[in-house]
Amino acid sequence: MATHFILVAIAIMALASRLVSASDPSQLQDFCVAVKDSKSAVFVNGKFCNDPKLATANDFFYSGLLTPQNTSNPVGSTVTPVNVMQIPGLNTLGISLARIDFAPYGLNPPHTHPRGTEILVVLEGTLYVGFVTSNPDNRLFTKVLYPGDVFVFPEGLIHFQFNQGKTNARVLPLEHQNLCHYHC
Ligand SMILES: *[C@@H]1O[C@H](CO)[C@@H](O)[C@H](O)[C@H]1NC(C)=O
Asked: Which of 162, 167, 165 minimizes the C-alpha distance to 106?
């Protein structure tokens, strides 16, 4: 009888711990608007939080993402980030947005976000995109994307986007940043 009770208790504890570890812990506050200028040595997930009473709608706002960017550079692509540096209210929320402009044959060179999964939507142009799985398989997944297409680059995997068309291309990538506030 006692053995039976212990087994049931262990089963419940195992189930509970599985439930608990199913996702990241939630935040302890509604938000943590980043203080713009902090030279102190202490950090809270990257940035200090401003006094919540001082927060305004503009702490959660950015404008101008529809403005085409200059792609006259060696790779022919320009990333316009919209992370905590542009929107202080994004601090600790684990998500960010960007815009990438591509000249014809422009490339967003292979890179990784060690703690960020990326999902992007193509607004304009034709892009050849891909990612490589980790060792030992190193499988290459690629796809040609057209406007309206959406593609996912799983967290930590090397990925790239190449404009294979003769016209400009634009994409909007959204990044989920696990335990990270920007530059993941
Ligand atoms: C784009 O950038 C290049 C290189 O910096 C510069 O020479 C050119 O004037 C810029 N074009 C525009 C329209 O700003």
From this structure: 162
Fold of 24-177: Jelly Rolls (2.60.120)
Q: Which atom of ligand 1 is nearest to the CA of 70?
A: 1
Q: Enumerate the domain spans of the chain.
A: 24-177
pTM reported for the whole predicted model: 0.79
Average pLDDT, the chain: 84
**From CA 34, how far away is CA 75, in angstroms rounded?**
32
Identity at 84, one-letter amino acid code: V
Which helix or strand (DSSP H or E) is residue 56 part of? none
Number of other CB atoms surrounding residue 153 within 10 Å = 24
Identify the three-state secondary structure at position 54.
helix
Which residue ranges have their beta carbon within 6 Å of ligand 1?
A: 70, 72
User: What tokens does 77 get?
Assistant: 């692509």
| 71 alpha carbon – ligand 1 mean position (Å) | 8
Q: What is the dihedral of CA 117, 122, 127, 129, to 10 degrees?
A: 10
In angstroms, rounded to a whole number, what is the distance separating the alpha carbons of residues 167 and 99? 17
Q: Is the pLDDT of residue 21 over 50?
A: no
Q: What share of the chain is helix, strand, coil (3-state, %, to 5)?
A: 15, 35, 50
